[in-house]
Amino acid sequence: MENGPDRENLSERKIDGAADHLVGQILPAVDLRASDSSTVNLADNLGTIVVFAYPEITTLENTTQARSFRDQNIQIQFSGADHIFGLSTQDCLDLREAASLLHLPYLLLSDSELKLAHGLALPTTQVDGDVLLERLTMILYGGKIIKIFYPVFPPDKNAGVVLTWLRENLPIIP
User: Fold this and answer.
1) Which of 136, 139, 102 shows the shortest CA–CA distance to 117?
2) How many domains does the chain have?
3) How many Cα neighbours within 13 Å face the side chain of 145?
4) Residue 70 belongs to what domain range?
5) Cα radius of gyration rounded to whole Å, the chain
6) Over its length of 174 residues, how does the chain's per-residue pLDDT go in tens digits?
7) Is the peptide bond before 154 cis (omega within 30 degrees of 0)?
8) Among 12, 29, 45, which residue's Cα sits nearest to residue 139?
9) CATH number of 24's domain
């Protein structure tokens, strides 16, 4: 974790290798609260899952990644993803509000207790005393991380990059 950017510059990340250890990691069994008030344990989901992590949704300007996954949701699912989730350290109430305002067809997951972040050693940054996830996208299959996109820049292009990867690499044959 670093003391880094201010909230205005959260997307401007450099290649630092902070996610290099993630491919091949088995997901820890962590229950995450979702924007619909349900609980999701990513380790229990055996299909192909796309999880994009983002620092926070506070203004329209920092929702471009979430909106790009919203806009390409159907294509991503047709390309083999069984589920798409957004992940942040924001609390469930903030996520519920963001999902509603942005009309998201997928759930946002809260790791406000940092259990998944610590369990996987996800890259984080600290801003104004808050621990925020760095933008990254994980492709999960069978409870394991099989692909990482990090750093994610620009955020609005991330869903398209993921879609291309899915089209070129799925179906996965265990």
Assistant:
1) 136
2) 1
3) 23
4) 18-169
5) 15
6) 344 444 444 455 567 888 999 999 999 999 999 999 999 999 997 799 999 999 998 876 679 999 999 999 999 999 999 999 999 999 999 999 999 999 999 999 999 999 999 999 999 999 999 999 999 999 999 999 999 999 999 999 999 999 999 999 988 755
7) yes
8) 45
9) 3.40.30.10
Which residue is associated with the tokens 């899952």? 49
Q: Which two tokens stand for residue 137?
A: 């996208």
Is there a domain that residue 38 lies in? Answer: yes
Peptide bond just before 171 cis, omega within 30 deg? yes
Strand ranges (E), 76-169: 83-88, 107-110, 124-127, 130-133, 136-141, 144-149
Which residue type is seen at 131? V
